[in-house]
Amino acid sequence: MSNDPLHDAAGAGTATAMDGLLQTLDLETLEENLFRGVSPQVGWQRVFGGQVIGQALVAAQRTVMADRFVHSLHAYFMRPGDPAVPIIYEVDRIRDGSSFTTRRVVAIQHGAAIFSLSASFQVEEEGLEHHIAPPLVPQPEELMGEAEMKAMFLANAPGAIRRYWEQPRPIEIRPVSLKHYVSREPQEPVQHVWVKATGAVPDERPLQAAVLAYISDMTLLDTSLRAHGTSIFDRHLQVASLDHAMWFHRPSKLDDWLLYTQDSPSTGGARGMNRGSLFDRSGNLIASVAQEGLIRKKADA
After folding, report:
1. Other C-beta atoms within 10 Å of 3: how many?
2. Which has fewest Cβ within 10 Å: 93, 201, 235, 239?
3. What letters, b where the CB count within 10 A reaches 16 and e where it falls short, cover 199-230?
4. Residue 49 phi/psi, 5° resolution?
5. CA nearest 278: which of 251, 252, 259, 257?
């Protein structure tokens, strides 16, 4: 596995940011139940949480029979990930049942656990079916593109965040409303964001689930800050994911825009609670997400 996630494995020199993400998710097998992953060097001081979730899910999937697909995961972030060194993923095969499989994954750096994930996999079955409808919002083609957003907001962002967002990224984001980024007034803690892979995702359900898990950590924690007239760009705040849960309802090929609807029912105790739903363009509910994050004022604020 290349140490450069933006390296084109085919040697053609035409790698995209999505190629980089797919390589980042393509873990090296060290031994049975033991895998190694690397992080892209994008000037970020810590590893993006969605990357660790996606890599841990890939590690778990490597030990599960091919006829079983993830239906839920629950994870805790324990320490910031160091992007300069590899992450070791150790898989514990908790149970292999007739219909369900359970795995636990611990991510290790510098001899200590930085993250843990439990995931459950199920054979496909038929049953009762319903889902809620998505909110009525403008379509992504009606919204400002990412290039325009960068030009508008990055000038005032901290250097590390600016360097990260200036890099080509595997997922494009188009918020339905930009008021949150230009106003300091408290707003309703609800946001709707369109997300889309910027390159092709292979037609493999386990890999599509890992990419979706990566997406699920994007913009979510920022929802709880809307009620307080601030955002993740606030230099006076320490903001980090604490835990993350996700339920996979229906497969998605990730070949079109997804609507990520988010709300925050509560903040308190230096923590913010956030919930999300991912819908495809046809209005099908693809996945549900819940996350609590740290929101702490820095000592020098």
Report:
1. 10
2. 235
3. eebeeebbbbbbbbbbbbbbbbbbbbbbbbeb
4. -60, -40
5. 259
Listing from the earlier edge strand, what are the strands of the sheet with 28-31? 28-31, 34-37, 87-96, 100-109, 112-123, 68-77, 237-248, 285-297, 271-280, 258-268, 190-197, 171-175
The domain ranges of the chain are: 17-124+139-297
Residues 6+ apart with CB under 8 A from 4: none
Exposure b/e, 183-194, CB count within 10 A at least 16 = b: eeeeeebebbbb
Q: What is the pTM of this model?
A: 0.90
- In this prediction, residue 224 has a pLDDT band, given cuts at 50, 70 and 90, of very high
Q: Residue 63: name the closest of 10, 105, 99 by CA.
A: 105
Active-site amino acid positions: 217, 241, 291
**Tokens 């949480």, residue?**
49
Tokens of 114: 């930085």
Confidence of residue 6 (pLDDT cuts 50, 70, 90): very low
Q: Where are the alpha helices (DSSP H) in 121-220?
A: 146-153, 159-166, 179-182, 205-216
Pair of tokens at residue 63: 């030990």
- CATH number, span 17-124+139-297: 2.40.160.210
Task: State the burial class of residue 46 (Cβ atoms within 10 Å of its Cβ: 0-12, 13-18, 19+).
Answer: middle
Provide the H-helix boundaries in the chain: 17-25, 49-61, 146-153, 159-166, 179-182, 205-216
